[in-house]
Amino acid sequence: MTKKKGIIFDMDGVLIDAMPFHAEAMRRAIKELTNREINKKQVYLLEGMPGSNLVKEIFRREKIDHNLAMSEDLAEQIGKRKEQIFKQIQNARVINGARELLDDLTKSCGKACVKAVVSGSARKEVESILDKNIGAQFFDVIITGDDLEEGKPQPVPFQIALRKMNLMPSDVIVVENSPLGVQAAVRAGLKYIVTLNNSPLDLNTDFKEAISSDIENVMFKDTKSASEFLLNWCCGNTK
Question: Which of 217, 239, 192, 212 is closest to 14 using CA atoms?
């Protein structure tokens, strides 16, 4: 009997090119409600953090007025407005090579490869985006913000996925594109790789605190270039 292995994919930035729209929507929401401009790179650095916490952490990093940064009501307002703007402007497309990878994993590995996707977005949004761009049928497990009380960098999102996949941590690898996602994977005791795709982040600087092992062993410039590695991992050809 073939031993099952698994892959947990982050969605935005790994499978779907939605991060530019998330970053722009957050910039507009903060500008609209506080008249402050932010560096959109902060959204990429904090990807995976729950809504109001993400807003307050952006305020802290951008040194925005302390009273604003501590306002839970304002953070929630910005989070809600950001989601409204995102729905209006988003035109997300599948990341190059992602659909082909999932198709190859399904054909080559069959049920020996358990595939999960983890996203902090609402289930309705996640399933809609996946159905439109890739096909939710590729995934055995889908974890969304509706399932979570804590987001990244806490390990909970990956721990829930692992439990539903019914696999040991040693048999699962996470594909991430954010420092907080890597931290969450490490805290969950999972192997990981990073696929930067169109991210403005730099692996050597922005991931320095998150990645403890040799960067070259976990970094791929994009999802497409990681495909062979992931096929080998799930089809049982890695050593």
Answer: 192
Amino acid at 162: L
Among 176, 122, 185, 138, residue whose Cα is nearest residue 157: 185
Angle at 162 between CA 21 and CA 172, to 5 degrees: 90
Stretch 193-210: mean pLDDT, rounded? 87
pLDDT at 97 over 60: yes
In order, the DSSP letters of the chain are -PPPEEEEEESBTTTB--HHHHHHHHHHHHHHHH-----THHHHHTTTS-HHHHHHHHHHHTT--HHHHT-HHHHHHHHHHHHHHHHHH----BPTTHHHHHHHHHHHHGGGEEEEEE-SS-HHHHHHHHHHHT-GGG-SEEE-GGG-SS-TTSSHHHHHHHHHHT--GGGEEEEE-SHHHHHHHHHTT-EEEEE-TT----HHHHTTTT--S-GGGTEESSTGGGHHHHHHHHHT---
- Name the packing angle between helices 19-34 and 51-61 (round to 10°): 70
Q: Residue 197 carries which side chain, given as an amino acid letter?
A: N
What is residue 6's three-state secondary structure?
strand
For the chain, give the mean pLDDT.
88
> Token match 């990244």: residue?
152
pLDDT at 238 over 50: no
| For residue 168, pLDDT beyond 70 | yes
